[in-house]
Amino acid sequence: FQMESEKTYTAAVIGGTGAIGKRLIELLLKDDRCQKIVTVARNPLPDWEGQEKLKVVQMDNMDNMAEASEEFEGCQKFYCCLGTRVKVGKELFVKVDKTYPIEFAKIC
Length: 108
Known about the structure:
It is a single chain. The protein is of the alpha/beta class. The protein has a single domain (9-107), classed as NAD(P)-binding Rossmann-like Domain (Rossmann fold, 3-Layer(aba) Sandwich). The protein is 28% helix and 21% strand. The protein has 2 helices and 4 strands, in the order βαβββα. 19% of the residues are buried.
């Protein structure tokens, strides 16, 4: 798998447990230039246990994402793969699709 740059980097991912996020993490794990991946998840990610370059930061509530900001220090690339469906209700939809990505961007 080749990405546009030949430089090494570290990556931060939120939304890594969804379909898009899982695929992104798979690609990052295969990319030799990606030295470390930091992702936030509510639960452990058993599919990737033992992956040395993947650090899973467990967080029950993403409302407190700023508390994990130190975990993202040194990351050069940031990926937001969060998303939900409108049918979950407007309040939750806005929180997941707007508020959390904005808070993640502030950390970046």
